[in-house]
C-alpha cells in the first residue's frame, strides 16, 4: 500500500497509470469492434481513451524541464557510448515535448495558426529518434552484460575442470543461434533493469513507426505495446532500483 501511495503521489506515476488506461482502451476497442452488438461499448471506450489522453497532457507539461535535466545528467556519464546515445536521445525528447506542448496549445484553442499534422509529424520523428538511440544504448549494455556472463561462465568451467569427476551437458556442441539466445536469456535474467528498459523501448517504438509509415501496425498491436510499456514504466517508478542506471 505504501508503494502504491508513493507511486500515485508522483507525476510520472499518475502519467503511467493514465497511459496504461489509455492503451487498454485502445486494445479493448480493437478487440470488440468486429463483434456485433458492441457498438455502445466501443464508443464508450473511445470516449474514455480520448479523455484520458487529454488528461495526460497536463502531466506532461513539465516534461520539457525533466528532459533538459536528464540531458545534463547524461553528459556526465563515464562511458562514451551511453553518454553519446543518452545525450542525443534526451535532446530529441526535449524537442518532442516542445512539439507536444505546441499541439496541446492548439488543442485547447489558445491559438489556431498551428499546422496540426506538421507538428504531429515533427513530434513523431523526434520521438522515434529518441527511442532508436535509447535502443542502441540498450544493445550496447546487453553486449557488455553478455561478455560478463561469458567470462563468469568460463571461469566457473575452468575451475570445475580441475575435478576429473565433473561432467556437464553444457559442454556438448550446440547450434550457434541456440547458444546466442541462451546467452541473451541468461544475460537479461541477471539484469532485470536492462530487460525492462529494452522491452519498454521496443514496445514504445511501435507507435512512431506506425505514425511515420515506416512499419504499419494495427491499433491492437499498438495498444498491447503501449500497455506493456506502461506496466514496465510503472514498475520503474514504484521501484526505482529497477530503473536502468547510467554509468
Automatic annotation (TrEMBL):
Single GO cellular component term: peroxisomal membrane
Superkingdom: Eukaryota
PANTHER family linked: PEROXISOMAL BIOGENESIS FACTOR 11 (PTHR12652), PEROXISOMAL MEMBRANE PROTEIN 11A (PTHR12652:SF22)
Chief place where the protein resides: membrane
GO terms for biological process, alphabetical: brown fat cell differentiation; peroxisome fission; regulation of peroxisome size; signal transduction
Location within or outside the cell: Peroxisome membrane
GO molecular function, one term: protein homodimerization activity
Name of the molecule in the record: PEX11A isoform 3
Keyword terms, alphabetized: Membrane, Peroxisome, Peroxisome biogenesis, Transmembrane, Transmembrane helix
Gene that encodes it: PEX11A
Annotated transmembrane regions: 220-239
Amino acid at each position: 500500500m505504501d508503494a502504491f501511495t508513493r507511486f500515485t503521489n508522483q507525476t510520472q506515476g499518475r502519467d503511467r497509470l493514465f497511459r496504461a488506461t489509455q492503451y487498454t482502451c485502445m486494445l479493448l476497442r480493437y478487440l470488440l469492434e468486429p463483434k456485433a452488438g458492441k457498438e455502445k461499448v466501443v464508443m464508450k471506450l473511445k470516449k474514455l481513451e480520448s479523455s484520458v489522453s487529454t488528461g495526460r497532457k497536463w502531466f506532461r507539461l513539465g516534461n520539457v524541464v525533466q528532459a533538459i535535466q536528464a540531458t545534463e545528467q547524461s553528459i556526465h556519464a563515464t562511458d562514451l557510448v551511453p553518454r553519446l546515445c543518452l545525450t542525443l536521445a534526451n535532446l530529441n525528447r526535449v524537442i518532442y515535448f516542445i512539439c507536444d506542448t505546441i499541439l496541446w496549445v492548439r488543442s485547447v484553442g489558445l491559438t489556431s495558426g498551428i499546422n496540426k499534422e506538421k507538428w504531429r509529424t515533427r513530434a513523431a520523428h523526434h520521438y522515434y529518434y529518441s527511442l532508436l538511440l535509447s535502443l542502441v544504448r540498450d544493445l550496447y549494455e546487453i553486449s557488455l552484460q553478455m561478455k560478463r556472463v561469458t567470462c563468469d561462465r568460463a571461469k566457473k568451467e575452468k575451475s570445475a575442470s580441475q575435478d576429473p569427476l565433473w561432467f556437464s551437458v553444457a559442454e556438448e556442441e550446440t547450434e550457434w543461434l541456440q547458444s546466442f539466445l541462451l546467452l541473451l536469456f541468461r544475460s537479461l535474467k541477471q539484469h532485470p533493469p536492462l530487460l525492462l528498459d529494452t522491452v519498454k523501448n521496443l514496445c514504445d517504438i511501435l507507435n512512431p513507426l506506425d505514425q511515420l509509415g515506416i512499419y504499419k501496425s494495427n491499433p491492437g498491436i499498438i495498444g498491447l505495446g503501449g500497455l506493456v510499456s506502461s506496466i514496465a514504466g510503472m514498475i520503474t517508478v514504484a521501484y526505482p532500483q529497477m530503473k536502468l542506471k547510467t554509468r
